[in-house]
Amino acid sequence: MTKPNRILPLTLLAAAFSCGGSATVDEFRANAPTFEKLAIAQNDGDMVEAVADAAPSAAALTDASAGPDCHPHLFVRTGEIVGRVNRHFRKHLHHVEELIARNPLADGQTKTWENVRDGVDRKFTMTKTVNVDGSISYSFELDLAAVATTGTPAFVKVMSGSLTHIGPTDAEDSDAGAGALVENKGTVTFDFTALASVTAHERSSGQITDTFDNVHDPVKGVKRSASIALTNFVPEEGDAHGPRTGSYLWEREPGVGGKLQFQDTAILFCLPNPAGVQSDLTTVARWYKASTGEVHGRTDARATGGQLPAGDTWMGVTCARGQSSGAPGEGFWMMKLEDSTGATVSSQSAQLGTEPCDPVFGAVPSATDNKTDYDFTAAVTFPGEW
């Protein structure tokens, strides 16, 4: 005889999840916002934690974008954006990682860590909530205060957000959970203006909000994605274009490939522009790891407005292939100016090797017509993506 299924009401099910005592410190640590969970990457070496890395100067970034023979350096530019985002994430996340390595001040479903370093009082708080579907959410907040000689420290919220963990509760972000799917997703807001109000040497300002989703499938592998929104953001090295408000869309499967789409404003150095006005730039970067172990990549860009006549479009493409980690060498570049009919006004290009552009990314744009121009309205994919 078949035994009847026992189904608990949702209220009892939620209670069953929450009555197992307070969460362990290790469980909180495994679900805290860390560099490993939030860093974005174009190549295998991009996620190495390099706290002491110096930020590139504004002049260096300008020189790289101009380059010899007006090389657009689109693949290099993609790497610069990845490095800039990670470098600014570290400004907040290193406080979190240092604090959670210690013992919290109190036990329970809310845990708080606090420590003073270099004249700054740092406090990080996490609260665990068990959801009806069995997933677990952790809300968190990082507060900093300049150490006061008298009175209570004036804490400022510099980072906040939440992370929802789906899967075995003891499985960390880098673990597929012994054959089970593990997913960590959430949103983090980094406030650099608030950070600068506490740390005198901080030069960045504005906010970055990172909406991330890290999926570890035991069959398909790992997929990491993020939607990154910039609000009046100025990096620590400064920006000749002023505060930026825009967005980056990023996805990567380590050992497989990835993509990054970003919108930007930039001065086009290869066109007459004595007033230094800005154009609107859209860039799509794609890359994957070939069967030979090499990384093959291609980046396409389009710019309008600014010093460009109404209806004209600047188009650029860079192809790269090479080493299995780190940025592959750029073997082809082409840039051109098209009028409102799509006819080429002027163009430049250069190539190294016999086939620097992998045909898997589609036809290479022509320097003389628009028949094979990249379609910026098409879905962005990379080989092997799931």
Indicate the topology:
Layout: H1 10-18, H2 25-30, H3 35-38, H4 58-66, H5 74-100, E1 110-117, E2 120-130, E3 136-146, E4 156-166, E5 182-191, H6 192-198, E6 205-217, E7 221-234, E8 244-253, E9 257-266, E10 279-289, E11 295-304, E12 313-322, E13 330-338, E14 344-351
Antiparallel strand pairs: 1-2, 2-3, 3-4, 4-5, 5-6, 6-7, 7-8, 8-9, 9-10, 10-11, 11-12, 12-13, 13-14
Overview of this protein structure:
Helix content is about 15%, strand content about 40%. By secondary structure, it is α+β, with helices and mostly antiparallel strands. It has a 14-stranded antiparallel beta sheet with strand order 1-2-3-4-5-6-7-8-9-10-11-12-13-14. The model is unreliable at about 1-20, about 50-70 and about 175 (pLDDT under 50).
What's the pLDDT, averaged over the residues? 83
Helix-strand makeup class: alpha+beta
Uncertain segments:
1-21, 48-69, 173-177
Q: Which strand order do you get reading across the main beta sheet?
A: 1-2-3-4-5-6-7-8-9-10-11-12-13-14
The end-to-end distance, rounded to whole angstroms, is 43 Å
* Helicity range: 10-25%
Largest sheet: 14 strands, antiparallel
- The best one-word shape is globular
How many H/I helical runs? 6
Question: How do the helices and strands follow one another from N- to C-terminus?
Answer: HHHHHEEEEEHEEEEEEEEE
Radius of gyration: 24 Å
- How much strand? 35-45%
